[in-house]
Design a protein that fits this description.
Helix content: 25-40%
Strand content: 15-25%
Shape: globular
Bound molecules: thiamine diphosphate, magnesium ion
Largest sheet: 6 strands, parallel
Number of strands: 19
Length: about 550
């Protein structure tokens, strides 16, 4: 969707102020916009400081002081974007992000891309210069219209308020529209929305107090996406694949028909009796895999070549259940059917499931070892994680180890699989922890499983806002000195060791103890499996470093 032309929301650009409710039309507008968002139920606001956005900051501060919203503050907008993303991911509610102009806006781009590809609702309030100051070299001014291209559902360029009497109502209307679009009330995929807000001086005032306003505002009507049925009436040796975002529907279908379930760790479907934990190994090398005639895909599977191999296989029929958040998944362009609802007319075939379960049970167990291994870390983290706790898996090797070893267990596991970046992982986890605490579980623990480079990439997100309270966040870092996942790449064989290390593995010398000290986190160095179990009970913010070979 291309951004709208800038004048669509307001035509009376140079209208003379009819009523003066405040010395600052910017403040009146900001107060009504934020009060409207809050009145419509939006709770989670995220702010980075800046001058052009001062009216928004003041209004957010007023609403937070009155207990009408929760406000988190970060200096780094890149980090802010991912914290907001994590909270939206866990809560399903839109997160509002407030930034000043210029590079501040651009720093939201990674989180916006992830939100776009994973269908996560974000409302970006990006402050800007008024139109007369654009394109003339004014400080901190760039073209913010379309800066996110098609990664936002909508980009509305809102001209600077001038104090016209219709402006409060327009602000309320904008708030309602932004929520509706971010949540996909138009029947489209949920995702990020940008309101680019021009402000002219005077940029702020302390009146009106946003918390005193009671705007008249309503959510837009909600269009449900169309239901598309598919009917399966021929018997087949079927397996269900659950990728990111699959959810319980995959479990229900697999259980209803006795089908083996290959569920990635962050699919929301890795629980129940049909989960085949060792599916990666069995697809690669077991005769049962050759008997598969049909796969049903939920969500976005991204973790293994084996699954893609099944989807490429000409003898296998591919049925794709459409995913509202992650969009259409058909990487091999072989889907025979797309649907939102499946009707199955065949009889359950429990022998097929029994055979898979037996093959799974016969696979190696996590090898016992006094020193932690990747597999034993996964095992320990899953064992220590209870129903109210959460997990966040960084991209790279450990999530694949989790895909191989994590047991079937109904726990909340998240990962940024929209684009599978190694960026923003600490921040996303912080956002998840915030959501969990705000949902009434302040004692819950959020465990983040990451590689060393992934932690370093987002080290700046260790900085936190004291007003957020005592969150329990454990960052379990498998420190193998660089990107060991690249050992599986062709260059690992083709290059000499030195070149491979320099160009791909990129070993690092970061002292995680000092890093933790600098940002006020605890640090525990774990050298044995027993120490790991003990460390996993730590409360507060802690980096648990596990040295890996
Ligand atoms: C933002 C971003 N940059 C680069 C990559 C490519 N990439 C994938 S894995 C990886 C290395 C990760 O290393 P580490 O976190 O130490 O995990 P390990 O594989 O060693 O367990 C890189 C650079 C990416 N996915 N995202
Ligand atoms: Mg590593």
């Amino acid at each position: 969707m291309m951004p709208n032309s800038y004048a669509s929301w307001k035509t009376k650009f140079d209208a003379i102020a009819m009523t003066r409710m405040s010395d600052s039309p910017a403040q009146v507008f900001a107060a009504h916009l934020l009060a409207s968002l809050a009145k419509l139920g939006v709770r989670n606001f995220f702010l980075a400081p800046g001058a052009r956005s001062q009216s928004l900051a003041i209004a957010a501060g007023q609403l937070a002081a009155a207990g009408k919203i929760d406000l988190s503050i970060r200096v780094d907008e890149r980090s802010l974007g991912f914290v907001a993303l994590g909270t939206a991911l866990a809560s399903g509610e839109p997160s509002v992000i407030i930034t000043t102009s210029g590079t501040a806006v651009a720093n939201l781009h990674p989180a916006v891309l992830e939100a776009n590809h994973a269908g996560i609702p974000l409302i970006l309030l990006t402050a800007d210069r008024p139109h007369e100051l654009r394109g003339v070299g004014a400080n901190q001014t760039t073209n913010q219209i379309g800066i996110f291209n098609d990664a936002v559902r909508e980009c509305l360029d809102v001209v600077a308020p001038v104090g016209h009497e219709g402006e409060p109502a327009e602000a309320a209307e904008l708030a309602a529209a932004a929520i509706g679009i971010a949540l996909g009330y138009d029947g489209e995929q949920p995702g990020p929305v940008q309101l680019n807000l021009a402000f002219r001086e005077p940029l702020s005032a302390v009146e009106p107090n946003a918390a005193d306003l009671n705007p008249r505002v309503q959510l837009p009507p909600r269009d449900e996406p169309e239901t598309e049925f598919a009917v399966l009436n021929e018997a087949g040796k079927t397996v269900v694949i659950a990728g990111a975002g699959a959810g319980e529907a995959a479990v229900e279908l697999a259980e209803a028909f006795g089908w083996p379930l290959f569920a990635e760790p962050s699919s929301g479907a890795r629980f129940g009796a049909n989960v085949i934990v060792g599916y990666r190994e069995l697809i690669a090398d077991h005769e049962l895999a050759d008997q598969i005639t049909r796969v049903i895909v939920f969500g976005k599977p991204t973790l293994g070549r084996g699954v893609v191999g099944l989807l490429k296989n000409q003898d296998i029929e591919v049925i794709v259940v459409k995913n509202r958040e992650y969009g259409h998944f058909d990487v091999t362009r072989r889907a025979a059917k797309f649907c939102t609802e499946l009707t199955v007319l065949e009889e359950p075939d429990f022998e097929w499931l029994t055979a898979w379960r037996a093959a799974d049970a016969a696979l190696d167990k996590v090898p016992a070892s006094a020193e932690p291994t990747r597999a034993s870390i996964v095992q320990a983290v899953w064992a220590s994680t209870e129903q109210d706790d959460q997990m966040m898996l960084g991209a790279s090797r450990l999530i694949r180890e989790a895909d191989r070893w994590a047991p079937a267990k109904p726990v909340r596991v998240f990962s940024n699989r929209g684009l599978a970046g190694i960026d923003g992982t600490v921040a996303t986890a912080t956002g998840l922890a915030l959501a969990e605490a705000r949902a009434g579980y302040p004692d819950a623990i959020t465990r983040v499983l990451v590689g060393d480079l992934t932690l370093i990439h987002d080290a700046g997100s260790l900085a936190y806002d004291r007003a957020e309270g005592d969150l329990n966040i454990q960052i379990i870092v498998g420190n193998d000195n660089g990107g060991s996942i690249f050992e599986n790449l062709e260059p690992a064989q083709q290059l000499d060791a030195e070149s491979f290390d320099r160009l791909f593995r990129t070993p690092q010398q970061v002292d995680f103890w000092s890093l933790a000290q600098a940002y006020g986190w605890q640090h525990i160095l774990v050298e044995s499996s027993a120490q790991l179990d003990e460390a996993l009970a730590t409360r507060g913010r802690v980096i648990i470093e596990v040295k890996l070979a």
